């Protein structure tokens, strides 16, 4: 009863501050306060499905779940087949240990689209030959050996310029490289689209904790006898394996062929569970869709909730959409994309021509939760170039001139997470996303989407982007959203 009373008081105060805001917004806030499901969506993606790289059964499962979920909420669903890979990849468990008087469990991972072991494999350790002469001298010792490769891992599979083929033929068990902790592993970007089921990688590529690597390397140099044992279950699947954009559609009542877009990418690296990158973006996108649908929202413009595919393999899904729908690009009022740390919406930075619209749209947001004040600022960004698209799924929209205004994300409660320790590493897990940040971001996102969709005009594109040669305007005057007492 106390919680209900507080909610009633809050809604009354919000109504006064917002001055006759749409009743749908009030309903969105009420649902979000009592039944926010952002973390439930994240739980499904991270813990029930897991890492979702293109070509994996997990990504296909996530696609099917998203389709069913959007339909359950009464949204129309568009499924776009973006492409396929000739061979799929699924990651199973992995385990390793050093067998010696001072033995230890090994901390390691392997890049996607690299081989596993042939069951449990045990062998001695050698340091990779430096040249052909040293290879010929030690060729006999390579049979049944784990090979230490020099250099520090950046996450990619080991460069093929060293004598891989010769060492494979000599009977090596696999290759080991030093890696910083937390361990970051990526994928075989050079070859994963070229594989056939008859030309797959032969041996495991292991990224081993740098401290353990140093211990093992020292033992080898001191000619101490010991063995390493690995069981790595990386599996391949005959293709083609398709990957798809999944788009929930809340159709506009007056301007159905004009659009507002909210998105995150559904794919994720599989060394962890994609709980932040981009489970946090997908979960907020999904919950914003649910809040609007459950509140009975009837926006004037169509809102597209896009779960892009293949972002981690080169922005494949969003690039495909931009290329396939050129006629829609001038009709997109704004494209919002969430693909960053597990932080919370506490403002929005917009060009001057949009400022008044966003002040109107965002009225009262800073009263939803006083822990998260919300500010509208004036700022203009540089449009990305094709050669530096990078970033995330907003890039190809921005290059096409579409406004890609998204919320400012901060850490006002000082959780002090280090996104570098999450990004593409084994720590990209469900428990790295912050529930109150996810939940608040969902309701803020829903309100902003609804507000943009209900304007009597498309957002102005005047001054939306600077060219790369334009003066830096990042210090333009910041105008806070007016507060109401």
Description of the molecule:
- The chain is α/β, with parallel strands linked by helices and 485 residues long.
- The protein folds into two domains: 296 residues, 3-Layer(aba) Sandwich (Aminopeptidase), CATH 3.40.630.10; 122 residues, Glucose Oxidase, domain 1 (3-Layer(bba) Sandwich), CATH 3.50.30.
- The protein is built from twelve helices and 16 strands.
- The strands form three sheets. Strands 1, 2, 3, 4, 5, 6, 7, 8, 9, 10 and 11 form an eleven-stranded mixed sheet that branches. Strands 13-12-15 form a three-stranded mixed sheet, with helices on one face. Strands 14-16 form a two-stranded parallel sheet.
- Strand 12, helix 10 and strand 13 form a beta-alpha-beta unit.
- Helix 8 packs across helix 12.
- The longest helix has 19 residues.
- The radius of gyration is 26 Å and the shape is elongated.
- The two termini are 26 Å apart.
- The relative contact order is 0.16.
């Amino acid at each position: 009863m106390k919680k209900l009373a507080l909610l009633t008081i809050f809604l009354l105060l919000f109504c006064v501050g917002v001055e006759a805001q749409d009743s749908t917004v009030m309903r969105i806030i009420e649902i979000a306060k009592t039944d926010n499901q952002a973390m439930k969506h994240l739980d499904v993606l991270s813990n029930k499905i897991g890492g979702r790289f293109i070509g994996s059964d997990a990504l296909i499962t996530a696609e099917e779940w998203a389709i069913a979920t959007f339909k359950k909420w009464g949204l129309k669903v568009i499924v776009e087949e973006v492409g396929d890979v000739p061979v799929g990849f699924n990651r199973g468990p992995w385990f390793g240990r050093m067998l010696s008087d001072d033995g230890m469990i090994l901390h390691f991972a392997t890049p996607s689209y690299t081989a596993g072991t042939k069951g449990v494999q045990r062998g001695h350790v050698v340091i990779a030959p430096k040249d052909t002469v040293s290879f010929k001298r030690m060729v006999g010792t390579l049979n049944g050996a784990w090979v230490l490769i020099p250099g520090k891992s950046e996450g990619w599979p080991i460069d093929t310029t060293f004598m891989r083929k010769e060492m494979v033929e000599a009977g090596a068990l696999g290759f080991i490289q030093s890696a910083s902790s937390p361990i970051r592993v990526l994928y075989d970007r050079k070859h994963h689209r070229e594989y056939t089921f008859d030309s797959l990688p032969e041996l495991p590529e292991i990224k081993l904790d740098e401290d353990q690597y140093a211990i093992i390397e020292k033992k080898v140099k001191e000619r101490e006898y010991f063995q390493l044992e690995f069981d790595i279950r990386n599996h391949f699947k005959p293709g083609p394996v398709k990957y798809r954009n999944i788009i929930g559609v809340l159709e506009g009542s007056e301007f159905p062929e004009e659009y507002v877009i909210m998105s995150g990418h559904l794919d994720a690296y599989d060394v962890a569970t994609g709980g932040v990158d981009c489970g946090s973006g997908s979960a907020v996108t999904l919950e914003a869709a649910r809040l609007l649908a459950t509140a009975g929202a009837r926006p004037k413009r169509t809102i597209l909730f896009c779960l892009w595919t293949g972002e981690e393999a080169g922005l494949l899904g969003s690039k495909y959409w931009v290329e396939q729908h050129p006629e829609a690009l001038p009709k997109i009022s704004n494209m919002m994309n969430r693909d960053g740390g597990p932080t919370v919406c506490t403002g929005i930075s917009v060009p001057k021509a949009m400022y008044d619209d966003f002040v109107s749209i965002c009225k009262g947001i800073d009263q939803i939760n006083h822990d998260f004040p919300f500010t509208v600022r004036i700022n203009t960004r540089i449009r990305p170039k094709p050669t530096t698209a990078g970033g995330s799924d907003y890039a190809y929209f921005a290059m096409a001139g579409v406004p890609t205004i998204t919320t400012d994300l901060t850490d006002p409660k000082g959780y002090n997470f280090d996104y570098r320790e999450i990004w593409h590493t084994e720590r990209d897990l469900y428990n790295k996303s912050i529930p109150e940040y996810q939940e608040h971001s969902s309701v803020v996102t829903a309100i902003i989407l609804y507000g943009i969709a209900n304007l009597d005009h498309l957002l102005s594109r005047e001054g939306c982007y600077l060219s790369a040669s334009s003066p830096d305007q990042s210090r333009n005057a910041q105008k806070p959203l007016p507060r109401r007492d």
